[in-house]
Each structure stands twice: as C-alpha cells, then as structure tokens.
Design brief:
Strand content: 15-25%
Low-confidence stretches: none
Oligomer: single chain
Order of helices and strands: HEEEEEHHEEEEEEEEEEE
Radius of gyration: 43 Å
Helix content: 40-55%
Number of helices: 3
Number of strands: 16
Strand order of the largest sheet: 1-10-13-12-11-14
Mean pLDDT: 84
Length: about 350
C-alpha cells in the first residue's frame, strides 16, 4: 500500500475517532448534565440584642464552633435588676391594698348584719307601738319616735349595703391592678432575661463585631452563627435552559469543590427555581427592542447535600462547586417539589 493511501487511512481514522468521541461526549452530557456555575450556600443566623445595654462579657471568638444555647454575650443587668425590684415592690403594694379591701368588706358585712338586726328590732317596736296608739295607750310622741327610729334603721341598713358594694367594687379594681402589676413584673423579668444572649443554633461564629464594654442598641447585629450540618447547607447550581429537559427533583447528584477536587460529595436535586436569574434581577432585560440577541438563560437548581458526605463540615459557604446530575437515577420521593428527607 502506498504512503498516500496510508496517510488517507490515518486521517479517516482520526476523523472517525473525533466523531465517535464527540457523539459519546454529547450523549454523556445529555445523561449527566453538569455545570461549574454553582456555589455553596447556607443558613446564616444573625444574632442581635433585644434590649439596649453595655456588653459585660463576650466569651466567643471568631470562627469558634458553639452549641445551641451557648452564651454569646451578656449585658450589664443592673438597670434591669432595678426595674424588676421596682415592679415587685409595686406588686407588693397593690397586694397590701387588696388585703385592706378584704378587711373593709368584712367590716361592711358586719355593719350590714348589725343594721339588719337593728332594723328588725325597730320594725317590731313600730308594730307594737302601732297597736298601742290605736288603743290610745301611749302618747303620740312615742309613736312618732318609733316611726323615726324605724326609718333611721332602714337608712343605716341601706347605707351599709352601699358600703359593701363600694368595697367589693374597689376590690375588683385592685385585683385588676394586681394583674397589671404582675404583667409588669413578668415584663421586667423577661427584659432581664434578655441580658444573656445565646446562640439559636449550633454552628460557627462569624462576623463578630462586639467587645467588652461596648454599648449596643436593640437589633444591632453582634455576630452571625453559620450551621454547617444537615439541611442548613445546600448548593445552588445554575444550569443552562438547554440542560433542564431531563433534570427532575429527587435525582442523585455528585459534586466537588475547587478546594479539594479529588473529594466527591453527594446530594439530590431538591427543587428548581421559579424563574431564571434575569427574571429576578433588579433591572430585568427589555427584549422588546430592535437590537435583540438571544442569550441562553440559566435557571438556579437547588441541590440538597447528603449529610453523610459532609460529616466533617468541610463545605464552606461561597465555595465554587462542579455539579453533575445523574438523570438516569430513580428520583427520591419528593413532596411539593422538595426532597422528602427521612
């Protein structure tokens, strides 16, 4: 065989290899869509003070791993201790007034009993004097005195009943005052409890911005706590719209970071965004113009990280990730577009 035919055969084999390789790569890309436009994201819990005060202690340090409920900072509690004491003193004062009200009610009830007994006696006297005056056995003056005495006893009985009603009404008002005072005590104790600032979750301290002796205002960020485990960490991968045909929630995903390309992480497609990045941008593109150029859009796809592959919490927020989706895998059971975790 001449050199000419040999050269032609080599060229044909080379072209055939390129074509076969291209077909294999294209087919692989269809079954295993991938992207490097992906980053690690996660929950960030901002810790702030609910009350104004002076930082007494701030025992945590930047990047420290802390547990849920661990103390992050304490405020000087002296002002709030005084407020609690004042509220408790006001409550004790109202409670002492209530004791006086009870005594007044007992006194009014005793006065009613005395007035009622006196009224009954005066009625008997009046009845007796009425019979005597009919027989003209007594002077008219004594009869008039009996009538007056009966009227006075009736008035005293009515006044005693009104005094009891007034005492009971005052007691009801003072009981409401006790409830108000108790609410103020609870409020003062609640504010006092805010002097101890604890972590809402377990995670790493980040962006600490406080020092001992610093005066803080309500809502002022003191630090952030970033949990690096469980569902608190995920990957947002921006796939081209031409790659989304086969991607479904629940499909298996493998990815690695640029920090350690040799380590493979696992996860699942958790959900697909409701719109592309351009749709939610501050200034969405205006395509109704004469100078329109088609640009392939990207849709954010959220990847849930398998906790078993991130047990050492090596993933860090913001890391660049290379994501590969296995569209042949059986989707994990999902509910409302989200992966159902066992």
């Amino acid at each position: 065989m001449s050199k000419k035919w040999i050269s032609l055969l080599v060229i044909c084999l080379f072209v055939a290899a390129i074509v076969v390789g291209g077909v294999i790569y294209w087919r692989h890309a269809q079954i295993y869509p991938s992207t490097e436009d992906a980053y690690v994201h996660g929950d960030k819990y901002s810790v702030s003070s609910r009350i104004p005060g002076t930082i007494l202690t701030a025992p945590v340090t930047e990047n420290q791993l802390i547990k849920k409920g661990q103390v992050i900072a304490t405020l000087d509690p002296r002002d709030y201790d005084q407020a609690v004491q004042q509220a408790e003193a006001a409550l004790a004062q109202v409670q002492s007034v209530l004791a006086t009200d009870r005594a007044q009610i007992l006194q009014a009830e005793a006065q009613i009993q005395a007035a009622q007994s006196e009224l009954a006696l005066r009625k008997l006297d009046l009845k007796r004097f009425t019979e005597l005056i009919k027989r003209q056995s007594i002077p008219k003056q004594k009869y008039d005195q009996a009538v007056t005495a009966e009227q006075v006893a009736e008035a005293r009985f009515t006044a005693a009943r009104k005094s009891l009603s007034a005492a009971e009404a005052k007691q009801a008002v003072d009981r409401k005052g006790i409830k108000t005072a108790e609410v103020r005590v609870n409020e003062a104790e609640l504010k006092r409890s805010y002097c101890t600032i604890t972590s809402p979750v377990s995670g790493y301290v980040s962006k600490k911005s406080i020092q001992d002796g610093e005066v803080v205002a309500p809502g002022q960020p003191l630090c952030a706590v970033v949990p690096m485990s469980g569902g608190h960490v995920w990957v947002d991968a921006n796939f081209k719209e031409t790659q989304l045909k086969r991607i479904q929630p629940g499909q298996k995903v493998t990815f690695h970071t640029d920090v350690n390309p040799d380590r493979e992480y696992r996860g699942y497609v958790e959900s697909l965004s409701a719109g592309t990045g351009a749709a939610f941008s501050l200034l969405p593109p205006e395509n109704a113009t004469g100078n329109w150029v088609k640009v392939v859009q990207r849709l954010p796809v959220r990847i849930a990280v398998d906790p078993k592959s991130n047990q050492d919490h090596s993933l860090r927020l913001g890391l660049s990730v290379h994501v590969v989706v296995d569209t042949k895998s059986a989707p994990v059971k999902v509910e409302d577009g989200r992966v159902e975790k066992s």
